[in-house]
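dumping the sequnces here before i forget
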Amino acid sequence: MKKVILPLFYLAIASVAANAQKVYATKAGQIKFNASSPIEKIEAVNNQVDSKFVDKSGQIVFSALIKSFKFENQLMEDHFNENYLESSKIPKAEFRGFISNIASIDFTKDGKYSVTVEGTLNLHGVPQKVSTSGTLEIVGGKPVIIGVFKVKIKDYGITGLYIGDKIASEAEISVNCKYE
Amino acid sequence: MKRKILGSALTLVGLLAAGVWYYVFVYSKTHHRNVADEKGLFVQAGQIVKDYENDEAGANKKYLNKAIEIQGLILKKEKDQAGNTTITLKSGDPMANIFCTLKPGEASKLHGNQMLIKGICTGYLSDVVLNDAVVLKSE
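..and the predicted 3d for all of it:
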């Protein structure tokens, strides 16, 4: 009897291990915002980005607090929060989507992979579909996701006198997250 | 007489313009909001997390963008991707804690587990988030 049960037991454990999905997470990811125009440098960095993704399904979430974006110029930071992103009313931005080619990634081996991420970016309370390509690199068994995409500021209901003039009409969003 | 008035009006406008230019391009670049100079609103680590879990919009009205003093036990000390020291304060709730990014130079003031810190509350993600924090007590 034991002879039958034991291999079955091992088989059960092996199948659980094979099907187990892992959630990779960080609370200190980085997102840079750049809406510079030829006239003015408008750059901010947020080092408190919360992100998670699932290795099997490719499901991915990024959440960022608008007030965590730091500018070199305090006045610019105040205007960004008060006049443009209205962060007291809408304190968060969020992206939810999928890494569409997650199956092609071998998480057990260090290496660099091109990935496509598709989903919905909710910025300034306005949801918009976003699709972008980036890289997922496995470094010492830990994944790092890097990507850059552009958003049209007006698509998110953000208005202001200087958009398209001192402020670029398209902002560049750079994501760099190291997961555990 | 008219010329005198015009002259002084022009000088005044010139001075004003110089002042605005200085405030926007020089002062604002070099002077940042410093939480150390602000009076903090005191709250226990467990309480602020509970407030955010129960009513995020209400908690934002109370804490968002304000200097908050939080007392609690340190759970984790790490570095973020830009090299800033971050600490996690224990709330007692396993689902959410307090994630604080310290100002540069503050990490050397960390001596013990019992903490009193002051930082600017930027909102709530998986944890309540504080930025630009200074260490008031660590024993």
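Residues 2-30 of chain B form the longest helix (29 residues).
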